Amino acid sequence: MIRFIPLLHRQIRFPITNSSSHNTLFKRLIQSSSKQLTTVQSTPQVQSQSAILAERFTPEERALASKQRLQGLGPLVSRLPESWIPYAELSRLEKPVGTWLLYVPCTWSIIIAATQTGAPFVSTMSMLAIFGTGALIMRGFGCTINDLLDKNYDDKVLRTIERPIASGRVTRKQAVAYAGGQLALGLGVILMIPLDCFVLGAASLLPVCTYPLFKRFTYYPQAVLSLTFNWGALLGFPAMGLWDINTMCALFASTFCWTMIYDTIYAHQDKKFDINAGVKSTALKWGTHSKKIFSGLSLAQLSLLGYAGYSAGILLNPGFLIGSGIFSYRLIKMIKDVNLDDPRDCWKHFTSNINSGLIFSAGLLFDYILMCLGLL
């Protein structure tokens, strides 16, 4: 799985090659998009939105954004029925990076708690599957809410003008109904975990629903996103029947610092457009000091991660030592190498955090398997 992730992202982002099969796919997507636009072009909403975009971006910029959207659909989403594709895009199914980054802290907490309690293998794997499903659904819900609240910002940023609501392919009413269905599914997943942690799980809805609002009045929306994305670092412990407050809080604080780093790198992609759109972020606030702040955050993150291991009694386990060592190396190298003025380089290093997180997950899983075999 670890080797698969970067290939998946390269395929999603740059699937077009000189091969005839990929050219055929691109032509089919262009034709599909043209049919969709022809169908909805007569609606006042789409006509109005097209006029707004025409005033803000050149035809070449809009054509490039449309081409990149079609390329980014990838081999799975592009094969869905045409009417389903805008909703898949609302959930960011074509960009699973967010789902993985939401899921990784869940795996850490579940596996650490399973090791502490000696949980049966099947129970642990089942909980990992439940949290994986929840990460997919709730990340999609969060993206839908984000697009609903950010519609008037997304159409001012070149990278986001092709999002379904900003481009007029999905109406607000349709998006609200879709979000309701996602929320119902998400609550269904929460009901599959022990009832004593239901309130903790449901409490995550507040930051999920309010995160997009913070970029309007504070330079630290990334702090709210970091709360949201790492809720699983708390929830995994009680889901496995363990309320280890010290380890829970240390792990949560560690992953919070990690998210502040990688999401600020992500925000550096759009900093030029964000200034014009009036959107605030840590990328704009920290500016040229970002890497120095990253260094401080990484020191805090790794220290807190070590304390979480110590508190859980697994600090000296081989998987924890090796996994955290590789994770630390990749984190420090990312901070050193990333070019914050190059959007493509920011994206590359942002997505690299998936593998970094999964490597540490693999280390924790190795220790857990040794424990199950009576070798630890």
Structure in words:
The protein is mostly helical and 376 residues long. It has one domain: UbiA prenyltransferase (Tetracycline Repressor, domain 2, Orthogonal Bundle), CATH 1.10.357. The protein is 75% helix and 0% strand. The protein has helices at residues 4-13, 20-40, 44-56, 59-72, 74-77, 85-90, 97-117, 121-149, 151-154, 172-190, 198-202, 205-214, 221-229, 231-239, 245-267, 271-277, 282-286, 290-312, 318-337, 343-372. Helix 12 runs antiparallel to helix 13 (221-229), helix 15 (245-267) packs antiparallel against helix 18 (290-312) and helix 15 (245-267) runs antiparallel to helix 20 (343-372). GO terms for molecular function: 4-hydroxybenzoate polyprenyltransferase activity. Its EC number is 2.5.1.39. The chain crosses the membrane at residues 100-122, 128-149, 183-207, 219-237, 249-267, 307-329, 350-371.
